[in-house]
Design goal:
With 260 residues, the chain is α/β, with parallel strands linked by helices. The protein is 47% helix and 16% strand. It binds acetoacetyl-coenzyme A.
Length: 260
Amino acid sequence: MEYKFLKTEFKDNGITIMTVSAPKSLNALNSTVLKEIDHFVSNLDTKKTRVLIITGDGEKAFVAGADISEMVHLYEKEGYEFSKLGAIAFRKIETLPIPVIAAVNGFCLGGGCELAMACDFRYASSNAKFGQPEVGLGITPGFSGTYRLAKLVGQGMAKEMIFTSKAIKADEALRIGLVNAVCEPEELMNKVMMTAKRILANAPLAIAHAKRCINESYDLCADDAIELENVAFGKCFATDDQKEGMAAFLEKREAVFGGK
Ligand code: CAA
């Protein structure tokens, strides 16, 4: 499929970059962009792509939110459907069996912050600004922001950000745990790439199991979460990667993982 609002770059080493590109509206998410994201993620070959990086085109914005010029015309039913469209696409990102890193360059607002939060973690450039400004437009966050922001930074901080609609700078986002690292804009992609390459050196199936355990255990009681991990741990022993990883350690050499 030809994308109108996405640029995709598949690197030989297993790293793929998906760039949201709607420069005239600071990469705002209209329904076409959301459908393209859904299509891209649904069709991503996660045997070939081992780490996905999501970013926004240009230096000014990651994504400045859902497209207000489209939403202005919606009524209740269409509003619900628009919310579902984003929520389903973002949930697919969150549940991909590979790590997804957001490289946040500039405005990361509303649906943009929600897109970044659907990723496994976020690095930000020092000019990034995060916020959920929706209540200032008379709506709630719509792409699962109430759920994920509270999960990431705690209910008190999430409520303050959402109720005040105030954007926070990158250093504050770092302080509250919304991003893992902040760097100069020109360093951002390098830093994300270095982390992605570190991930590539590790066992893909073990990473997939660990990601699923972390994602799913949040909504489980302690006993069920611990059992989920016990089962995942056991399953790792059915893989070649476990044999290779442990043999390599004992033989004092680098492991070479095949993802089997
Ligand atoms: N939707 C549609 N268009 C947008 C947009 C958005 N979310 N954000 C920016 N744009 C457009 C502007 O309308 C403008 O277009 P024109 O040149 O045609 O006028 C262009 O992008 C550049 O923006 P500005 O001139 O406003 O740039 P600025 O530097 O002065 O301000 C900004 C930047 C602070 C990000 C400002 O554009 C802004 O406040 N944008 C809206 C942010 C927002 O409210 N996002 C949340 C949307 S609601 C949502 O996301 C719901 C949800 O959870 C699903």
